[in-house]
Amino acid sequence: MPQRISAITLLVPDYDAGIAFYVHKLGFTLISDTQLSANKRWVLVAPPGVRETRLLLAKAEGEAQIARIGNQTGGRVALFLTTDNFAHDHAAMLAAGVEFLEAPRTESYGTVAVFRDPFGNSWDLIEPR
After folding, report:
1. How far, CA to CA in Å, does 68 sit from each of 12, 30, 46, 65?
2. What is the pTM of this model?
């Protein structure tokens, strides 16, 4: 049976803040928002039309997790959002108030710019060649 990565956990300080950014600013689809207990929810988001890998927005609990919000990769770009229309998506993200850390640049693999979510996680927006 083929395997696939179905979700990647991303620590956030608050579920609703995560939804506000990923759904309302980036335009991701809210796949699931299920109350599991008084303090825990199962929140899955994904770019529109994506059926494979999703983000599980997990509210950080305890000092160790709270300290990792926005720095789960030790300062490296954590996630990569691939597009087939960089100019359109870049402009839409800027209009929505997404913070880009650099101007778009052309690399051997395509057009790319690094942006950051409000929690400190760095992303690459990439249009492959």
Report:
1. 9, 24, 22, 5
2. 0.92
